[in-house]
Write the structure tokens for this entry.
Amino acid sequence: MKLKDETRNVYDYLTVLSLSGKNKRGIYMWLCECDCGNQKIVAGNLLRNGSTRSCGCLRKQRITETLKKEEVGNVYGDLTVLSLFGKNALGAYIWLCQCKCGNQKPILGTNLRAGNTKSCGCLRKRKSSVKVKKQEGIIYIKSSKVVKKK
Ligand SMILES: [Zn+2]
Ligand SMILES: [Zn+2]
């Protein structure tokens, strides 16, 4: 089998780092680095035909729908995604988000995309305070009629 240099080629999650050797069938094996940080040796033909596209984490992630998606710069409600923060115990990506109120909070990507989390938590607080203000407003309008205000 002819050697096709795969170094620095990217196959989905895998970036080929270097040639690792040949397997028993004479197929070139490549040391690849996965987006998740794992390294794995993969046969060149499996890379090229698309059967191996991650260290194995991709399949896991597909199942749990926690596929890494580039979220940096995305805005979800009051949150702007700043950077990748890490992963939780299940391997789901957590993003560091900047809230409009100034707080920073790490939030699960799935929660962002599902719209479950739109602020650092202050939004809920603010919503309840808006309610209170509205009620106060009603009281104010009622009393202002009495004093002939607009
Ligand atoms: Zn991986
Ligand atoms: Zn906030």
About this structure: Confidence is low (pLDDT under 50) at residues 139-147. The pocket of zinc ion (ligand 1) is lined by residues 13, 34, 36, 38, 54-55, 57 (CB under 6 Å). The first strand starts at residue 10 and ends at 11.
